[in-house]
Amino acid sequence: NDFILKDEMDDDRIPDAHRSEMAKFLWDRHFWVGADGVLFVEKAPGVDGSMRLFEPAGNEADMCGNGLRCVAAFLMEKLDRTAVDVLTKDGVKHAERTPEGIRVDMGLVRTQRKDMAQYITDQGGPEDSMMSIDLSIGDSTIKASLLNTGEPHIIIFTDDIRSVPMVEIGTHVNSDRIRFPKGMNINYVQITGVHDISVRTYERGVYNESMACGTGSTACAAASLMLNRIQQGPVNVKTLGGMLVIEIDENARAVMTGPAEKAFEGKLTIEV
C-alpha cells in the first residue's frame, strides 16, 4: 500500500469534519497525490503517537496493519527511537525496528461470532466459532472463515489464486448492507508451501482489490495455521505488493514484520 501521512504531532490538526473530505479527493492518482488512504498522526497520552486512517470513500478504518507500520517508521524517525507504542482504534500497538523490517504487535486474532457481531447480522450464539462456516453469496455457498484482526475479514481458500472472482465477490458482499452493515474485507488464500501462502484482498472502504492488506494477511495466516493447512511457525505471506511475515503464538496473538519506506515528503495547501 501507499499512504499520505499528515504529521499532526505539533498540534497542526485538521478538524475531523474535513478529514473525510480530504481523503476523498487526495486518493485520486489522476488529479492529486494518490494513495490508498490518508493517515493522521498526533500526540496521545501514555504513548508515542496515535493514528487514524481515512479511506478513499471518506470513512474511517477500524485498523490498518500496513498503515501501522508506516506510522511506526515515521515516529521512530521523528522521535529518534527504535521502538514505539502507537494508539489505534483497536488499542495500543507496540512496534520496533528490526533488520527484517518494522515488527508490529497486531493483537489477538478473534474468531468467535461475538467478535464479528457489528459486521454480520447472521444469527448464532456469541461463543460460536467462525473458523469454518457456509457463506451464501448470490446463488453459491462458499466454505469460509471469518476473523477479526482489528478489521473484519472473510477468508476463502482456493487452489488457483490467479483466477478468483475477487472484484465480483467483493462488490456483491459490500453491496449487501443488510447482512454486512459495515461492509467486509474479502481474502482469497492459496497454500504454496508448508509455511507459505499467497493472498489477494478486496478492501472495504477502498471498494477494490488492494496491493496488500496487513490485517488481511494476518487473518489469512491465522486461518491457515488454525485450520492446520500449513505447519506451525512463521508464515511467509505473498501479496501483490510484496512479502510479509506473520507469527501467531499459542494464545492467538499476532506479530507482523514487513517493510515501510518513505517515498517523499512535501507541503500541501488546501482551502477549506
Describe this structure in words.
With 272 residues, this protein is an alpha+beta fold. The chain has 2 domains: 4-105, Diaminopimelate Epimerase, Chain A, domain 1; 108-257, Roll (Diaminopimelate Epimerase, Chain A, domain 1). It contains 4 helices and 15 strands. The protein has a 15-stranded mixed sheet that branches. A hairpin with a 2-residue loop joins strand 5 and strand 6. The longest helix has 15 residues, at 65-79. It is globular, with a radius of gyration of 18 Å. The protein starts with a strand and ends in a 14-residue tail after the last strand. The model has no long low-confidence stretch (mean pLDDT 92).
Number of strands: 15
**Which parts are unreliable, with pLDDT below 50 for 5 consecutive residues or more?**
none
Strand content: 35-45%
Order of helical and strand elements: EHEEHEEEEEEHEEEHEEE
The CATH class of the largest domain turns out to be Alpha Beta
Radius of gyration: 18 Å
SS-based class: alpha+beta
pLDDT averaged over residues: 92
Report the sheet with the most strands, covering strand number, pairing sense and barrel closure: 15 strands, mixed
General shape? globular
Number of domains: 2
CATH superfamily name of the largest domain? Diaminopimelate Epimerase, Chain A, domain 1
Binned, the helix content reads 10-25%
